[in-house]
Amino acid sequence: MFYGAVVWDPWLIVAQIVCLQCLYYLTLGVFLSFLVGIRVSRMSLVYFFDFASVTTSNVTGWYVIASFLLSSVAGAGYMLYLIERAKKCLDFSATLYIIHLFICIIYGGWPSSITWWVVNGTGVAVMALLGEYLCIRRELREIPITRYRSNV
């Protein structure tokens, strides 16, 4: 937790990105299972990566939106333990959503829905700002110093 001379470690950065991405999708899957899984007959990757499923025109779309936003809140909590630095939270959350954008493009084409862009933009903002807030609170905690009395 002490930050002196920072050594640039690309393997650590890649491992943090991979762990954060996996935890984000795992959490998104749990939220989608609970919120969307009760409304549809069969879950699929469409709800993860297809921009057409992020819609405000039906209740299932609202549950998908809620799942994405709740996952970004959980992602901020993951950054508290994986990243530990407030100044890196924006970088890691933006990287997560850029990778998500590339996966969505490969899966279903360029997202042409305004709703998709608003939800993901809000997700980046929530994850970055809440992650920074949580990390700053941890960084500003007092360092406990115990004083030992000598029994002389």
From TrEMBL:
Domain of life from the UniProt record:
Eukaryota
Regions crossing the membrane: 12-40, 60-83, 90-110, 116-136
One Pfam annotation reads SYS1
Q: Which GO terms describe its cellular component?
A: cytosol; Golgi membrane; trans-Golgi network
Alphabetic keyword roster: Golgi apparatus, Membrane, Protein transport, Transmembrane, Transmembrane helix, Transport
Q: Does the keyword Transmembrane helix apply?
A: yes
* InterPro entries per record: Integral_membrane_SYS1 (IPR016973), Integral_membrane_SYS1-rel (IPR019185)
Q: What is its main location?
A: Golgi
Entry's Gene Ontology BP terms: Golgi to endosome transport; Golgi to plasma membrane protein transport; protein localization to Golgi apparatus
What kind of membrane protein is this, topologically? Multi-pass membrane protein
- Protein localization: Golgi apparatus membrane
- Family membership noted in the UniProt record: Belongs to the SYS1 family.
The protein depicted here goes by the name Protein SYS1 homolog
